[in-house]
Each structure stands twice: as structure tokens, then as C-alpha cells.
Amino acid sequence: MAFENLSDKLQNVFKNLRSKGRLTEADVKAALKEVKMALLEADVNFKVVKQFIKAVQERAIGQDVMNGLNPGQMVIKIVNEEMVALMGNETTEIALKPGNEITIIMMVGLQGAGKTTTTAKLAGLFKKKGRKPLLAACDIYRPAAIQQLHINGEKQGVEVFSMGDKNKPVDIAKAAVEHASKNGYNTLIIDTAGRLHVDESMMEELQELKKNIQIDQCILVVDAMTGQDAVNVSETFNEKIGIDGVILTKLDGDTRGGAALSIRSVTGRPILYVGMGEKLTDLEQFYPDRMASRILGMGDVLTLIDKV
Amino acid sequence: SKTRDNIVAGIDSIFSGFSSIDEEFYEEIEEILVMGDLGINATTAIIEDLKAKVKENKIKEPFECKELLIKSMKEQMDVGETAYEFENKQSVVLVIGVNGVGKTTSVGKLAGKLKDQGKKVVLAAADTFRAAASEQLTEWANRAGVDIIGGQEGADPAAVVFDAVAAAKARKADVLLCDTAGRLHNKKNLMEELRKINRILEKEYPEAYRETLVVLDGTTGQNALSQAREFKEVADITGIILTKLDGTAKGGIAVAIQSELKIPVKYIGVGETIDDLQKFDSEQFINALFTQN
Ligand SMILES: Nc1nc2c(ncn2[C@@H]2O[C@H](COP(=O)(O)OP(=O)(O)OP(=O)(O)O)[C@@H](O)[C@H]2O)c(=O)[nH]1
Ligand SMILES: Nc1nc2c(ncn2[C@@H]2O[C@H](COP(=O)(O)OP(=O)(O)OP(=O)(O)O)[C@@H](O)[C@H]2O)c(=O)[nH]1
Ligand SMILES: [Mg+2]
Ligand SMILES: [Mg+2]
């Protein structure tokens, strides 16, 4: 691989330096230069990287180097802490209303991100928790989107409400809400069509859905492999529709997943779950610390630092 | 969509405000390239190369430097007309890629395009895994007005391809287009399945001209390089279809892929209708890279 891992690089940078009492400006700058490269290589947005590096630099200069660490490791320790803090210190769950009150969740995102699959995954998760989920097929555009949701719903043993592709999504959603309340469902998950954040009329469709239906949680589904554009996408969805949480999909691949940091830092919204495969049980909790070490690409060093 | 004129104006505005070629000027270029998803390695290599050329040719003006950069990137990304030979031959096109990138849609669009050229096209629905994958491709076959050889959910995809080859021969098809299931390139067994499909095509349809296109989502960052590398291990990739360029993503990782793996982008996807597939135009692509949205 053309890209050596960050710990090797830092090892090189600090080879000739003996551990000193305090982090000097030169130490910090040298280490952060490598960190910057690693973050860019992990697809963290360029502007987010710049901001982040600046914040870490301010915090790091002048700090004591802990015993057992070299200056590079000390900087990494600080970088890691800041990253975990930025991504939300704790794991967050989707807030559900108690009892028979219906919680309405709407899934939104770009084409092919994994909305329909994740809708069915969530249904399984909620069912396990003793909830009564209903799925609504509001993607009237993509060929066979409705069948796809039906097949997945059936696999999960969860009912799917659909009205074909001749009705407007907002009307389908309204009818689904009614169907849910009449039939004792307390969790409604609305699957919507994939759309580009710059597609005005498609974004208006979501705004209309939000205006007419009491959406409790609007969840942005994002492909973990997304590059620099993650910022444009999540910022625009958040501004135009308003999002409450994020689900990152396809983390079973080998992407470093820097989009997680970008999205979190521009929207401030929590990452709720991660998709870890195509099977409908492949949905996992999101752990900020694991994500941080994945993005940095240096789990080994972090383990060492943890021991100090 | 943007006209050429305002694209060029966009490029000028990005580089305006620089009266000399200094570190700040190069930093601006670095930012543009990284923001376009070229990745820091490819970006650094391009800038180093540019610096050397500037020195060698004693270039002093930022605009000359800019032109040099854009010209060399265009040349690098250029695809010759020979890239599309399969369109006019008896051929088989295998379409592969990770999940959700736009394989099925691209197969549908390509079918429409070839059908418009008067070709007889057969589709193989070799994604037997994803829910409603074959229904989706069937809808595309209807839109394009071409034949489809289907696979039941759970069927062996290699067997579907085997049947499709037989059908293509029997019906004297010009082009057989094979849609496959999305698979992440780090999944050993799924990549093995692809190898098997590839072998069937080699063995059963040797007379057909082979084209293997990997579909990459234009929104994808550095991972697309890893995808291209791994798919190249399984089949001889002849080109890339870069999708979803109708958004704000630039798809710059294709530049890194071209320089490391020498795989050219042949088509781009610019929307969800049957007409939204275009032949790759390096000039337009590079210009867009240097244009702010
Ligand atoms: N490997 C992997 N594949 C996933 C994951 N989540 C979804 N997929 C796959 O990604 C592809 C797209 O998923 P969909 O659920 O159809 O995506 P979507 O966002 O509904 O797509 P549109 O409705 O077309 O916008 C399918 O092949 C899914 O099986 C995941 O976590 N890991
Ligand atoms: N905006 C836009 N959307 C596209 C483009 N190409 C495909 N899509 C959309 O992306 C989504 C996924 O496309 P598919 O063709 O199902 O992707 P796939 O690679 O076959 O997906 P899997 O078979 O699940 O791996 C669909 O909603 C398509 O309409 C494109 O060029 N632009
Ligand atoms: Mg969908
Ligand atoms: Mg498909």
C-alpha cells in the first residue's frame, strides 16, 4: 500500500526525539501534519480536518507528556480524545414513545445508501424490543422498491403498508399513520425514495411529508464509503428537512469511514447505528471510540496508550 | 446543467486573486483536488509533478500553471474511441461493483442505449440475492424493450449466466448484459462467486467480445480505489461506469484509479432515467472538478 500507517509515520517523525516534559509547538505541529494526512486519507472532509487540527493544536501545545509515551503518542492520545468527544461520548438510542403512542420514523438519504434495507433491519430490532412496528412504502419511483420492502418486511415478520406507485408519498404516509393507529401498531417506519440533496422538487416532497405528518425521528442513512461530499449532503438534508440522527451503512467493508466525523461535525446529530452487512440482522450499535480508531487507522497505538 | 462558458468562468474564479505562483497558490490547488476526492496521495503526486514542470518550463504566471495542470489531467483521463468497440461487436458485458452503486440502473440505461442503436440485447438477471433485484431489472428490460433471462431469488447466479449465454446465442443477440449482485470487495466468498461467473463466460461464450465494467458511485471517497483493485483481481476490468455525477460529488477518485490501475472511465451516470448515461468526456470531467458548485 502506498499509504504507510499513521503509527509507522509518527514513529519516524519522533525517532530522534527523547521524551520531554512538555509538548512543544514543534512536536505538536510535526505530529499533527501526519494526523492531517491520515484523516484526509480516511475521507474526513478537508474543511473539517482543518478545523479539527486547529482545535487539537491549541489544546495540545504545552501539555505534559505522560510517562511511558513519546511526544507523538501523546499528541495521538489527545487527537483520539477529541475525536471521540466530537462524535458523541456515548452511544445514543432512537427515542421511542412509551405505550401505544405511535412513534413515527422517516428514513431519508441519497440513492442506494441503504434506506430500504435499514428500514427492515430497524423493524426487526424494534420487534425484538417488544414494539409493534409497521413499515410504509413511500418510494414510488425506484423500480421494484415497493416489492423490495415487502420481501424484506416478510422476512422480518413485519407488516408493510403500501398503496402502489400512483399515490403521492404524503398521502401514502397519512394512510399508513391511520392504518397504524387503527391496528395497534406503535412504531411506524417510513421508507422514502433516494434523492440528491440538490434535487429541489424531491427535497420539497420530504418537506411536505414533514409538514403533514408528526415525524418524531428523521433519520439520515449514509453510505460509510462517502467521500468529501458527505458534508454537502448532510448539511443540506439537515437544513432543508431537519435530521435527528444518522445511520451509517456498509461498515462491513474496509472503508476507514471518515464521513462519520464530517457528518457529526457539520450536523451535530448523533450516529445511532451502523450497518454491518446485507442480512437483516446486521445492524449494530455505534461506538464513537471504535469509530475514532478506525478513522485514525491505528488501533494498535490506541491500545498501548490506553494501558499507560 | 452548466454551459462550457460558465464552467470556464468558474475555473477562473477559483484561481483568481493569485498574482504569483507561491505556496498559497499550490495550497489552493491541493484543497480543490482533495475536496474533489482525488485523495491526498494522488493530489500530492500531481502537485509535485506540476511544481517540477513549472520549474522546468520557467512558468511565472498562475494562469499558465493552471492551464498546464488542467491540460495534463485531461490527457491522463482521456478515453479513445476504441473504448466503445464492444457496442459494435457481438459482445458480453459483465457489470460488477459494491452494493447500491447503480449497477442495475446502469445495465438498464446501457440496454436502452444499445437498443436505440438497433442492437439486439439480452439481459441476465444474475443478482439472485437482493430482495426484488430481478423485478427491478425486469422493469428496466421493459423500459428498454429488451429480453431478460431471469433468476429466482436464491438461485445460483453462475447458472443464470450460463442460461443467459445459451439464450443470447439462440436468439442471435448482439450484446449480452449481465447484472450481478452488489458485493463488498473484502468478502472472499462473494468475490469467489464472481470468479465463477467470469469463468462461465470465458468457457461458454469465447466467441463474444468481452467487456467487464466496474460500477463506482461518484460519491465514494478513497475506498473506490480499494474496490477497483480488488475487482481487478477477479476479472479483467476494461472500464468504469461512474454514477451519480448529477449531484455535487466530483468523482475525483477516478483520477487516482486511472493513475494507479490504468482503468479508464467509460461512462458516467447523471440521473435515474434511461437516457442518463453518457460517454465519459475528460474535458467536462476535469472542468467540473475545478468548478465550485
Ligand atoms: N454490505 C452491506 N450492504 C448493505 C448494507 N446496507 C444496505 N446494503 C446493500 O446496499 C444496497 C442498497 O440498499 P437499499 O436498501 O436498496 O438502499 P436504498 O437507500 O433504499 O436505495 P434507493 O431506494 O435506491 O435509494 C443493497 O444491495 C443492500 O443489500 C450494509 O450495511 N452492508
Ligand atoms: N442520481 C442518480 N441516481 C442513480 C444513478 N445511477 C443509479 N442511481 C440510483 O441509485 C440507486 C441504486 O441503484 P441500483 O441500480 O439499484 O444499484 P445496484 O448497484 O444495482 O444496487 P445493488 O444491486 O443493491 O447492489 C437507485 O435509486 C438508482 O435509481 C445516477 O447516475 N444518478
Ligand atoms: Mg430504497
Ligand atoms: Mg442491482
Provide structural commentary.
The complex is a heterodimer of chains A (308) and B (293). Chain A has helices at residues 6-13, 25-41, 46-60, 71-86, 115-128, 145-156, 169-182, 200-212, 230-240, 259-267, 288-296, 299-307; strands at residues 103-108, 133-138, 159-161, 187-192, 217-223, 245-249, 271-275, 283-285. With 308 residues, chain A is α/β, with parallel strands linked by helices. Chain A has an 8-stranded mixed beta sheet, sandwiched between helices. Chain B has 293 residues and is α/β, with parallel strands linked by helices. Chain B is built from 11 helices and 8 strands. An 8-stranded mixed beta sheet of chain B has the order 3-2-4-1-5-6-7-8, with helices on both faces. The radius of gyration of chain B is 21 Å and the shape is elongated. Chain B starts with a helix and ends with a helix. The model of chain B has no long low-confidence stretch (mean pLDDT 94). At the A-B interface, helix 2 and helix 6 of A face helix 2, helix 6 and helix 9 of B. One guanosine-5'-triphosphate (GTP) sits between chains A (109, 111-117, 139, 142, 145, 193-194, 221, 249-250, 252, 275-278, 282) and B (99-100, 130, 182, 184).
Provide a quick synopsis of the model:
Chain A has 308 residues and is an alpha/beta fold. Chain A has helices spanning 6-13, 25-41, 46-60, 71-86, 115-128, 145-156, 169-182, 200-212, 230-240, 259-267, 288-296, 299-307, and strands at 103-108, 133-138, 159-161, 187-192, 217-223, 245-249, 271-275, 283-285.
**Shape, principal axes of CA atoms of chain A:** elongated
Instruction: Summarize the amount of helix of chain A as a percent range.
Output: 40-55%
Beta-strand content estimate of chain A = 5-15%
Terminal CA distance of chain A = 30 Å
Poorly predicted runs of chain B = none
Q: Please tally the β strands of chain B and state the result.
A: 8
Order of SSEs of chain B: HHHHEHEHEHEHEHEHEEH
Percent of residues in helices of chain B:
40-55%
Percent strand of chain B: 5-15%
Global structural class of chain B: alpha/beta
Q: Ligands bound here?
A: guanosine-5'-triphosphate, magnesium ion
Structural class computed from helices and strand pairing of chain A: alpha/beta
Spatial order of strands in the largest sheet of chain A: 3-2-4-1-5-6-7-8
> What is the global morphology of chain B?
elongated
Total DSSP E strands of chain A: 8
